[in-house]
Amino acid sequence: MSQESFDEAASRGRKAMRKQNFPEAIEAFRMAVTLEPDNPDAHNSLATACYMGKEFEEAARHFNRVTQLKPRDAKAFINLGALYNQTGEHKQAGEILRKAIQRDGKSAEAYYNLGIAQKNLGQNAMAVNAYRECVRLRPEMAEAHLNLANLYVDQKNFKKGVEHYQKALEARPGFGSALRGLKRVQQFQEQSKAAFSPFGRLVDTEELAAKNAVVVARNLTDEERFEDRQFLQLTTEEAGDLAAHIYSHLKEHLEPAVLALNRIISQNPDQQQALFEARDKYHHAYRQFKRLFNSMQVEFQKLRHHEEQMKA
Predict the structure, then answer these.
(1) In whole angstroms, what is the distance from residue 194 CA to residue 207 CA?
(2) What gap in Å lies between CA 307 and CA 111, rounded to an integer?
(3) Which parts of the chain fold into alpha helices (H)?
(4) What residues make up the domain containing 154?
(5) pTM for this one?
(6) Cβ pair 111, 133 in contact under 8 A
(7) Quick check: is 300 in a domain?
(8) How many structural domains are present in the chain?
(9) 256 lies in a domain?
(10) What does the pLDDT look like over 24-44, one tens digit per residue?
């Protein structure tokens, strides 16, 4: 019997995928890859079949190969990032998905999968930003609204949580997870109303006036005070996470740039002065941001301490 052609093997693999016969699909696409080892579509099909058949290690190899064969294709990086999320390798997923976004900043799927990675890394404020961008790009994506709502509820921002549970239901009427989320918010709110108020009462304003003190009154409800604290906490977390990300990104890319400049300087003695100036500018910018970052970390710590005192 003559050997299968590439088209025959690929066709057999597609038919097996439609039947959800993943072992047969894997075997067929392996043959296709053997026949055309540099065909990105064959590697992608094999990786997908392996993913569906829970052969994750082989799937990762072939999704990786697709990124090498099609380095500008965001989809290949998104698929690899989704696979890393599936296997619990969330740090690698985040790195790969940021590369996907560099290639296609309008991919809702890239932001969705990035949100999953960041949530599992404990970077909740950054995950909120990723899901917000996802639903901005694809407002009909019910799962993204659900995940965003869950994050808001975890942060006790019930108003925004309800808003996105409702948007998930608009996109998918009867969505069970969103309905359960709304019920959970209702339970939280009922518990909050029944809880003992942590706020003290104002001292006698006449006594303050006698001491020439000035009282600035804000008629806030307990709920408004609670929301103020949550907003302060969320803002602090977001600013800290974003500053840390910028600092890490700057360090990651600046050091190779300086090393490259040093090599260029050694190879171009006639341009040394201009190149030295360029290198020094890089160093100055890095030092300035490092000082700013350290100062910000101190201020963030003060805000966190203040938040803890408000909870006491």
Answers:
(1) 33
(2) 30
(3) 6-18, 22-35, 40-52, 56-69, 74-86, 90-103, 108-120, 124-137, 142-154, 158-171, 176-194, 205-210, 222-267, 272-311
(4) 139-195
(5) 0.62
(6) yes
(7) yes
(8) 2
(9) yes
(10) 999 999 999 999 999 999 999
